[in-house]
Write a structure and sequence with these properties.
two-stranded antiparallel ribbon; Rossmann fold; 259 residues; 27% helix; 11 strands; alpha/beta
Length: 259
């Protein structure tokens, strides 16, 4: 089974003080470390596990600059067979353009299954995988946390709200957006890193994909990025149970909550 996995390199923003840049439309990223998008890490592992069970090839694809090849090297070290970086140049693709660019590249490849993460840690829109499926004309399922491949059709488990899962079958070829927790991503060994250096990493330009400037008009406009306003913090309620219950009812009434 041939599998395409779309991956992304994202800034590590946990436990750091974020600052807005001078444009007011994005955070300052110069001093931030970068890692593979967490959801994509699980997608790579899912693809490699399927390949180990059924054979075929795994191809990792990303959009970005030379620095973004870091996540492709990681995918190759985990077991992917080859990688493709689409050089976006000075373009800052939005979700729609990402899907459009990826669709152009993937449409030229041989595949049975396309995997993406549910969302990216930097944008959190959760739209690229679904729009990519539409661009490719594929059946799709989102927030997939279980997959049993078979000939021509596969059983999938999809996470719904309230801790409920839905089990269904999907016709291949198909696209799945992968949820964290579907597996345990493997440790990248020194041997895996050495093997990755010998694997193919192809770089393609937007022009090679046949995309013109008219095709690359962003569909999303960011008006402003800002940090959450500071608040006074939590109010600690003290007293015996009756006093605390009375205080909670009072606060709920002040906030307009029906009691």
């Amino acid at each position: 089974m041939n599998i395409i996995v779309c991956v992304k390199r994202v800034p590590l923003t946990q436990e750091v003080d974020l600052e807005i840049d001078d444009t007011g439309k994005k955070i300052k990223e110069d001093a931030l470390a970068y890692v593979i998008n967490d959801w994509d890490n699980y997608a790579i592992e899912a693809a490699v596990q399927i390949q180990e069970a059924l054979g075929g090839e795994v191809t990792a694809v990303t959009i970005g600059c030379e620095d973004d090849e870091e996540v492709l090297r990681r995918a190759l070290a985990m077991g992917a067979d080859r990688a493709i970086r689409i050089d976006s140049g000075d373009l800052a693709p939005d979700g729609y353009l990402n899907a459009k660019i990826l669709a152009k590249a993937i449409s030229e490849l041989d595949y049975d299954l396309v995997l993406t993460g549910v969302q990216s840690e930097d944008q959190n829109t959760g739209m690229v995988g679904i729009m990519l499926a539409e661009q490719l004309g594929l059946a799709h399922a989102a927030v997939t946390n279980g997959f049993e491949p078979a000939e021509g059709t596969s059983k999938i488990r999809v996470e719904l709200e309230g801790g409920i899962d839905e089990v269904s079958r999907i016709q291949l070829p198909a696209l799945l957006t992968i949820q964290t927790g579907i597996n345990e991503p493997r440790y990248v060994s020194i041997m895996g890193i050495r093997k990755a250096k010998k694997k193919e990493l192809k770089v393609m330009s937007l022009e090679e994909l046949g995309l013109t400037p008219d095709d690359l008009t962003p569909q999303t406009r960011i008006e402003e990025v800002f940090l959450p306003p500071e608040t006074d913090g939590a109010e600690m309620i003290e007293g015996n149970p009756a006093e605390m219950a009375e205080a909670i009812i009072r606060i709920m009434g002040e906030k307009g909550v029906a009691v």
